[in-house]
Amino acid sequence: MRNQTFIIVGAGQAGAMAAATLRQQQFDGDIILIGKEYHAPYERPILSKDYLINPEEAPKYLFSEDFYLEKQIDLRIGQLVSQIMPSKHCVVLENGGKLRYDKLLLTMGARARRFPLLDQLGENIYTLRTLDDAQRLRQAVKKDKRILIVGGGVIGLELAATSCELGANVTVIEQADNIMGRCAPPLLQDYLLNRHQEKGVQFFLDTNIVSAQKQGSELVLILNTGEKVIGDIIIYGIGAEFRDQLAADAGLVTDGGIVIDSRCQTSEPDIFAAGDVCLQREPLTGDLQRRETWENANRQATIAAHAMMGLAPPQPGAPWFWTDQWGINIQMVGNMQAEEWHIQGDLQSDKAILFGTENEVLVGAVAINQGREMRNLRKLLANPAQVVSGVEWA
User: Fold this and answer.
1) CB under 8 Å to 77, separation ≥6 — which residues?
2) Superfamily of domain covering 114-236
3) What class of enzyme is it?
């Protein structure tokens, strides 16, 4: 019987981790890992932080070159898959070559969402999704530069903190009336907003950009409030567009992302997907959920690798992610939309835990500079328990 061939399209966090997991689980067939970028798989979280701050900081690759050789993973960087042919179990490369697969894993991730109104201003418009993006930003963000960040989500705020630390003057423009609205409870939103403002970041919340123009080297934005903001460069932090067109063209079910089940299987039995490109259907509610985090990419990669081999996947834990801003480590686990939040510790001292509850049940937690406690919280929230009555929330 011939060896099976598993092809992975997308050589980011999820793709590389899936390939590694397949070998860890003793898959002895061929693994082909295809990546569009001209870089081996690398860690992305540092791109908005250490990599920008320290000019000597080198990219952090997920695995060494020797790893791919030793594990017999055929890593093909700088290649693009242009078509999937599910009925023939093959993918077509941009150069016209065809590769046959037994199982296919799609991990193409996402691209930064852009703002056409601002794109017309020229070359001083930046995004941050890739190592190449980070290298461009490294050259642009300098002392006394006026940085306009469009979007007050995690990436926008991390870039605001990093840019300030480099001596830039930073303004954040956010359409919503809060920051990190999709992923943080109100207590954390207010805390982070205060910290950024104390460091000199200017915020325009509940604000839209209605016009933009370039005057010499200056970028001038007019807001719906009538106010004018001027910058030297603009950085987008307005979310992502998911690279699901390849899947949609192949007839897979998509809905603003590739729809997968709890085993990371798509609507085609031999095609799986993992990471930022996915929408996963929750078994209990049937709702489609997207989680664009490092942890989720690793978790889904592991689940997909097991499923491709016909193995029982590991039990998923509660969703977890982190952000570092102003030297403050913030970790979040579970449901950030809980009905009630309780504080243990002192936010003013940058050391506290926020507990989210619904009907007296612990459903989420935020640890601020409390990394050790987060380990216990993650274990606890893997199997949610009734909060003990009588607990005093300090």
Assistant:
1) 11, 35, 37, 38, 39, 40
2) FAD/NAD(P)-binding domain (3.50.50.60)
3) oxidoreductase
